[in-house]
Amino acid sequence: MLIVFQSKAAADVLMFSKHALTIMQVIGRPYDSMPERGVITHDQLPDAIELIEQAIADAKHQDNEDGEAHDDEDVKVHPIAEPVSFRQRVWPLLTMLRASREKNVDVVWEPAPRW
Description:
single chain, alpha+beta, 115 residues, four-stranded antiparallel sheet, globular, 4 strands
């Protein structure tokens, strides 16, 4: 399912529910599956942003450790074949969360409308 995150402070962010679920788990929401609708209140934004930034730093550190072991390989992977990192996937939502914090507004999500 496609989820749309909305805020009065930023443009909508679309994301597959399985990727949104990972982000929700990072910010401390112990969902087994992504709820169709929900909210991150403006009071929860600072903690959510901090947890996401920490997860990005941890992932970057892990990528650096993994990358050092493969530096000697001559095999080049085409950029389209490389997986999307957590940092790349979460960046649009993190930008929305930061803008929402600045404007003191909530972030809500719901199923994306069908085209």
